[in-house]
């Protein structure tokens, strides 16, 4: 179960889009979530910090929601990038940057703390700028949460300059 | 818009249930979200930290999901406590501790960073141990996110001892 993403889409986001608390490589205090392909599915690994608990022994639900959120936008970016003919880790233009339009999480079981988490995603194109990502979060071999993210290409309203 | 909850339900959770990263008063690194009544609605205020951004100038969606998550469980606890005849800040037994069964967030508009956020909740009993909380998150006077939490009284599976 313990794994590592070698070529993450977040490694290739433009610098201006790399400050996200969840997945920005430039956000020093952030979670540094990294999302890559595993065949035709997407994967993100995360080992929760000690303080990210709901009650002692179990992971904080908001952290799981954050993992699903960034896994969703990262997966959508991977999928559109692949549709455009590119893979992370190869010479390619900057990948598209998505934001979350909606997020849904079903907490299926309490998520034990102290084991690495793995999010697995399946992407589906709704239209080229809007993708649905269905996500399962595993602690070891147990699916503890199921999520769905509707991700859209970042609109100009997010550009502050 | 800037406000403060005087009597928060989280101030009265049992110590064992006060370690939540989002709303536990004993979690030093946590967000310390505090939820109280405002008439027949519930309210939580939060000023995002500098690093809790999606892109510079806008709040991280996972933080908004976390705010909605803990506002949901706190609101459900307030509601059942009131149904039982008790208010936070008065002499009362420990309030019931809820966990999130499901969480849904619609990100209506980009949430500007640098202004305090206010979550407002409306509670609805599904049955005594299961409540629905409908939540709106405001930045100043603008509703930026809408959420729904299904909260259930914490099951024994969360008791690690």
UniProtKB/TrEMBL annotation, chains A, B:
Protein name according to UniProt: PaaI family thioesterase
Spans traversing the lipid bilayer: none
Alphabetized InterPro entries for the sequence: HotDog_dom_sf, Thioestr_dom
Domain Thioesterase: 57-142
One Pfam family in the UniProt entry: 4HBT
């Amino acid at each position: 179960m313990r794994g590592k993403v070698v070529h993450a889409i977040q490694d290739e986001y433009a610098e201006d889009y790399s400050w996200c608390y969840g997945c920005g490589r430039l956000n020093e205090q952030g979670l540094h979530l990294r999302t890559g392909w595993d065949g035709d599915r997407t994967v993100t690994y995360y080992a929760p910090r000690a303080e990210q608990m709901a009650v002692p022994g179990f992971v904080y639900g908001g952290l799981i929601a954050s993992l699903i959120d960034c896994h969703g936008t990262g997966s959508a970016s991977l999928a559109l990038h692949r549709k455009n003919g590119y893979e992370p880790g190869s010479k390619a233009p900057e990948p598209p940057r998505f934001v979350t339009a909606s997020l849904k999480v079903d907490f299926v079981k309490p998520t034990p703390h102290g084991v690495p988490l793995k999010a697995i995603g399946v992407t589906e194109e709704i239209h080229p700028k809007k993708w649905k990502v269905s996500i399962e979060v595993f602690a070891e071999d147990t699916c503890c949460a199921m999520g769905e993210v509707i991700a859209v290409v970042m609109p100009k309203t997010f550009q502050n300059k």
